[in-house]
């Protein structure tokens, strides 16, 4: 998921849940414009439009939500209410039964999901993994990170966090493998260099650890964490 769209979704949903329809509307509209295949966002945007007196526009988004998910009862009901407000009473009476009578789509496979949906689900796994790790439950945290990467394998921050948890479990070789995978596709990703150095240091490979830290310093000369690690390496202290 693109960071900009993720931001719009998060902020828009927050305003929506707080009942601030006017504030939520532009953020949700940005998401719909970039990713038309997300029924829940169309429904939320429809509610915002309906609540701010724009029933005709709201109906279009409710219709799209039902097209994407014929079993979406809430969106069908919202569309029925919207049609009633517009004086389209026959359509209002028929829309719910019509939506309910449609055959549901066959369940999608992960590979068929829209990229935005995959990214959203991956971030939910990522957040849950961090929650497990915060509670000291590293094995479930690793499982959540792997689930996130199955959906979005290019998320460098997720793979780097997976490597950190593997390192904390003592699986140094697996951690190094994940970090090198990150750097294979993101050769300028400083956090991966930092954790690569820490992992090598934890293995007792002190001189080797300096190499990724020096690379990180060349990319971000003002990075204080990297500076501190290199100073500690020179004094043989532990990071």
UniProtKB/TrEMBL annotation:
Q: Where are the TPR repeats?
A: 39-72, 73-106, 122-155, 156-189, 190-223
Indicate yes or no for the key word Nuclease. Answer: no
| SMART domains according to UniProt | TPR
Print the keywords alphabetically: Repeat, TPR repeat
Could you identify this protein by its name? Tetratricopeptide repeata protein
- Origin organism is Plesiocystis pacifica SIR-1
């Amino acid at each position: 998921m693109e960071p900009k769209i993720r931001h719009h979704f998060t902020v828009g949903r927050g305003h929506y849940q707080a009942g601030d329809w006017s504030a939520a509307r532009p953020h949700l509209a940005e998401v719909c414009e970039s990713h038309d295949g997300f029924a829940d966002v169309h429904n939320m945007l429809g509610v915002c439009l309906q609540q701010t007196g724009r029933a005709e526009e709201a109906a279009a988004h409710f219709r799209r939500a039902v097209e994407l998910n014929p079993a979406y009862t809430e969106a069908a009901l919202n569309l029925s209410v919207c049609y009633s407000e517009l004086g389209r009473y026959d359509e209002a009476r028929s829309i719910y039964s019509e939506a309910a009578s449609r055959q549901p789509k066959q369940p999608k496979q992960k590979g068929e999901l829209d990229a935005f949906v995959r990214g959203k689900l991956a971030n939910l796994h990522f957040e849950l993994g961090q929650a497990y790790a915060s509670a000291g439950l590293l094995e479930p945290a690793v499982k959540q990170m792997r689930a996130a990467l199955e959906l979005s394998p290019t998320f460098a921050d997720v793979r780097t966090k997976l490597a950190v948890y593997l390192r904390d479990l003592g699986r140094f070789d697996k951690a190094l493998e994940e970090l090198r995978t990150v750097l294979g596709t993101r050769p300028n990703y400083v956090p991966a260099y930092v954790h690569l150095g820490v992992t090598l240091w934890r293995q007792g490979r002190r001189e080797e650890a300096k190499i990724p830290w020096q690379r990180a310093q060349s990319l971000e000369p003002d990075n204080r964490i990297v500076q501190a690690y290199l100073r500690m390496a020179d004094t043989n202290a532990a990071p």
